[in-house]
């Protein structure tokens, strides 16, 4: 039932630690999910420097989905969006033909506090890779269906699952679900999609006779219902969908075409990609020197 277990690789990005789960050398994608990062958890004292912010940077060929357990992030982008994301809400940004954005911790800078959340990169199907860039914010049970029974609290973040559909405008069949499980609670993930995974953001669960701890992802074989039992209070993120074909990944760019990535790099370096309003004072430059080895197509 469990094909693979992936440990999040923790990296200090200069302001806090991020745990990268996808891509992994033995598993580049799960459905259309190309990147999965666990942001934090991190404690911020009031008045921390602006260098902690994620400065303006570009994307093509994907949608980003930001979801928080704790904290707040202020999002700005080159299509004019300005939105503050809070716990239990979704920021959905479709890069398509090209977008730039920044993520700033303005509320935390004023008040201090804890930041903990997830960011996923979801590759666009080939026919939508050059779609017009856009942004939407989603909150509340009308847009993100929720369910509670016994020791389980569930929220559908994007896509379709468990007979419900979220309002997030996805481009391919997928699901993304947030579970909160009390100790001893059991819950099942049906065999609805061909590619499925579960990331334990906090706590411990048992699946298929195997214990999964915080910062571990299990990738499941297709065709079987997966039953979870919480060994302690646990936060689990379920995700997956249908595969959309191989992708090249380099820096902040995802595409089915290596040439398209090279074009995006040249556009960014030459200043041809618009920056977010109010963010023109600083941006993330293209890394100098030869690029790292490209991840294998999967």
UniProtKB/TrEMBL annotation:
<feature type="compositionally biased region" description="Pro residues">
    <location>
        <begin position="287"/>
        <end position="298"/>
    </location>
</feature>
<dbReference type="InterPro" id="IPR012093">
    <property type="entry name" value="Pirin"/>
</dbReference>
<dbReference type="InterPro" id="IPR014710">
    <property type="entry name" value="RmlC-like_jellyroll"/>
</dbReference>
<dbReference type="Pfam" id="PF05726">
    <property type="entry name" value="Pirin_C"/>
</dbReference>
<feature type="region of interest" description="Disordered">
    <location>
        <begin position="279"/>
        <end position="298"/>
    </location>
</feature>
<dbReference type="Pfam" id="PF02678">
    <property type="entry name" value="Pirin"/>
</dbReference>
<dbReference type="InterPro" id="IPR003829">
    <property type="entry name" value="Pirin_N_dom"/>
</dbReference>
<dbReference type="InterPro" id="IPR008778">
    <property type="entry name" value="Pirin_C_dom"/>
</dbReference>
<protein>
    <submittedName>
        <fullName>Pirin family protein</fullName>
    </submittedName>
</protein>
<feature type="domain" description="Pirin N-terminal">
    <location>
        <begin position="17"/>
        <end position="122"/>
    </location>
</feature>
<feature type="domain" description="Pirin C-terminal">
    <location>
        <begin position="176"/>
        <end position="273"/>
    </location>
</feature>
<comment type="similarity">
    <text>Belongs to the pirin family.</text>
</comment>
<dbReference type="InterPro" id="IPR011051">
    <property type="entry name" value="RmlC_Cupin_sf"/>
</dbReference>
């Amino acid at each position: 039932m469990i094909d693979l277990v992936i440990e999040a690789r923790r990296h200090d990005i200069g302001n806090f630690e991020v745990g990268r789960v996808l891509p992994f050398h033995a598993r580049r994608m799960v459905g259309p999910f190309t990147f999965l990062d666990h942001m934090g958890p991190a404690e911020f004292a009031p008045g921390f420097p602006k260098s902690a912010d994620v400065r303006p940077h570009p994307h093509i060929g994907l949608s980003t989905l930001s979801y928080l357990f704790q904290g707040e992030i202020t999002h700005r982008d080159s299509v004019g969006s300005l939105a503050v994301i809070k716990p239990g809400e979704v920021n959905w940004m479709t890069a398509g033909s090209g977008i730039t954005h920044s993520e700033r911790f303005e509320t935390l800078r004023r008040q201090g506090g804890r930041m903990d959340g997830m960011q996923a990169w979801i590759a666009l199907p080939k026919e939508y890779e050059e779609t017009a860039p856009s942004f939407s914010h989603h909150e509340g049970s009308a847009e993100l269906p929720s369910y509670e029974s016994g020791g389980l609290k569930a929220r559908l973040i994007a896509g379709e699952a468990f007979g419900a559909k979220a309002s997030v405008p996805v481009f391919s069949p997928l699901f993304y679900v947030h579970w909160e499980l009390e100790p001893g609670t059991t819950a099942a993930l049906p065999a609805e999609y061909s590619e499925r995974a579960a990331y334990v953001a906090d706590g411990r669960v048992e699946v298929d006779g195997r214990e999964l701890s915080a910062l571990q992802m299990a990738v499941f074989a297709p065709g079987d219902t997966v039953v979870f039992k919480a060994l302690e209070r646990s936060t689990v993120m379920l995700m997956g969908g249908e595969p959309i074909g191989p992708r090249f990944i380099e820096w902040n760019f995802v595409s089915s075409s290596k040439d398209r990535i090279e074009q995006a790099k040249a556009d960014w370096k030459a200043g041809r990609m618009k920056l977010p309003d109010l963010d023109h004072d600083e941006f993330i430059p293209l890394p100098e020197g030869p690029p790292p080895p490209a991840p294998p197509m999967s």
